[in-house]
Amino acid sequence: MTITEVETTITAKKVLCCKVPTNKGERIRKILLDNNELNKNYKLKKEDNYLFIPIISTDETEIDKSIMENLKKIYNNIEFIEINMLGNPKTNKLNFREYLLKNFKKEIENGAVVLSYDIIGDIVIIQISDNIDENIAKKIGAKALELIPSVKSVYRRKSEILGEFRVRELELLAGEYKTLTMYKENGYRLWVDVEKVYFSPRLGWERKRIMEKVKPEDIVVDMFCGVGPFSIACKNAKKIYAIDINPDAVELLKKNIKLNKLQHKIIPINNDIRKTEVKGNRIIMNLPKFAHLFVDTALKMVEKNGIIHYYTVGTDYNEAINLFKSKCNCEIVEKRIVKSYSPREHIFVLDIKIY
Ligand SMILES: C[S@@+](CC[C@H](N)C(=O)[O-])C[C@H]1O[C@@H](n2cnc3c(N)ncnc32)[C@H](O)[C@@H]1O
Questions:
Q1: Which intervals of the chain form a coiled coil (predicted)?
Q2: Is 52's C-beta closer than 6 angstroms to any atom of ligand 1?
Q3: Are 229 and 200 in contact (CB under 8 A)?
Q4: Of ligand 1's atoms, which has the minimum distance to the CA of residue 249?
Q5: Label partner for 144 (CA 20 to 30 A): which of 39, 68, 135, 241?
């Protein structure tokens, strides 16, 4: 495999855009931005009452199913159209995704190189399989460092998410070896250590959804809180119990509570949730792979008429629905795909009212 040198300046070019009504534009743009789908090399175009928002995918089918579902929730008749666009002079250069598409088409097709990546503060985590030659992997890392704005370190995923703490092994490909970074989403900030704790920027939209549901009288139990993104998103509640078994996560959670000035509301607890006695009317169960093992614990914690936000992995909603129906009197009040998990599986959330 060889890396061909690619042109770094682009002039007028056909670019795939989402065509949406102007009044939906900002919400659609935010979803695209959060999911690394917004093509920042081009300016948004306005025509009549429509906005054309440039995206990075070159074909509608490349867009992740969960992103598409979220876009369609904002505007169901979304259209994808290629139009001629002039590059934005400030950022008129090839983006990392375009670089991958030009140089690694075959590897992308066979899954050895993945187009999507995570940006957490000034850290980027990309997905390249072990089968890719080490020197090529390092070159890709160096390109990510060059082409993704404000990045200091580029890692690649070295393992699945592992163990009780749900942490993945990483390998530094380019930039400096540092794992602590600050991440911003939905108006709050979080310290994250990508080597010691679980964190996914792809849940930002989901946290916004929960944020909008929280009521001032709510008592929240965030059963698997990590560094606290869901707990902090629930900042309008009366009280939030934030529990995690990973001591490093709880140390960062404490810093994040202070950073967001929420000491009067969030109670950090470093413990196994099964040994923790708290109660609330809104329970967050963000441990998708193993949440089914903690349903009895959640049912002990939830108050009558309370809501459980249940995250799970699978191919459809049925397993989760049957599990809850077999254990309690309940109603599914909302359900949606949160993100893809594997080629066939998704992470789902079900909002379940417990009577
Ligand atoms: C998928 S992560 C979610 C973290 C956080 N909610 C977020 O969105 O970033 C699951 C978390 O559950 C914690 N955990 C696993 N088993 C636990 C248990 N028995 N009691 C409390 N926390 C647990 C892990 O340490 C991990 O931080």
A1: none
A2: no
A3: no
A4: 27
A5: 68
Q: Which residue's CA is the closest to the ligand 1 atom numbered 16?
A: 164
Mutate to test the pocket of ligand 1, among 118, 162, 166, 271 (most ligand atoms within 8 A of CB): 166
Residue 183 beta carbon below 6 angstroms from any ligand 1 atom:
no
- CA atoms of 71 and 30, how far apart (whole Å): 10
CATH architecture under which domain 96-178 falls: 2-Layer Sandwich (3.30)
Q: What value does the mean pLDDT take over residues 54-72?
A: 82
Domain ranges of the chain: 12-86, 96-178, 200-354
Question: Ligand 1 within 6 A of 229 CB?
Answer: yes
Pocket lining: 286 vs ligand 1, CB cutoff 6 Å: yes
Strands 266-270 and 302-314: unpaired
Token readout for 60 is 């509608």
pLDDT tens-digit profile of 84-106?
887 665 555 678 988 998 899 89
State the pLDDT at residue 269. 98
Check if the beta carbon of residue 231 is closer than 8 Å to that of residue 266. Answer: yes
CATH architecture of 12-86: 2-Layer Sandwich (3.30)
Q: What is the pLDDT of residue 65?
A: 76
Q: Tell me how far the alpha carbon of residue 249 lies from the centroid of ligand 1, in angstroms.
A: 9
Distance of alpha carbon 30 from alpha carbon 40, whole angstroms: 12
Please say if the pLDDT value at position 4 is more than 50: no
Q: What are phi and psi of 212, to 5 degrees?
A: -75, -15
Read off φ and ψ for residue 144, nearest 5 degrees. Answer: -60, -45
Ligand 1 centre to CA of 226 (Å) is 5
Domain covering 200-354, topology: Rossmann fold (3.40.50)
pLDDT-above-70 percentage for the chain: 95
pLDDT at position 149 is 85
